[in-house]
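Board notes (copied after class):
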Amino acid sequence: MYAVIKTGGKQYRVQQGDVIFVEKLNAQADDTVNFDALLIGDENGSKIGTPTVEGAKVEGKVVAQVKGEKITVYKYKAKKNERKKQGHRQPYTKVEITAING
């Protein structure tokens, strides 16, 4: 069984046992989070929600709050001696999918 969930402005196809990195959630490690399912599917077919499937929930457990790879942002203006170097590490939440109810 699989499901499509939406969080952080993105959609993810998940199955039980998957570990995904989503945009930072306001939750601590070992907390349980619930997502609404946009689609539920198995070998018999699929149920598509409008916009979500009624009564379908996907449960996950927060494993950790992590940061992504560092990227370097470099801005400059030609012929003006104006330069700015900046680094960024995007915060993510590592979530393990524990159950798909629907």
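Comment from the instructor: Residues 2-101 form one domain. The chain has no helices and seven strands.
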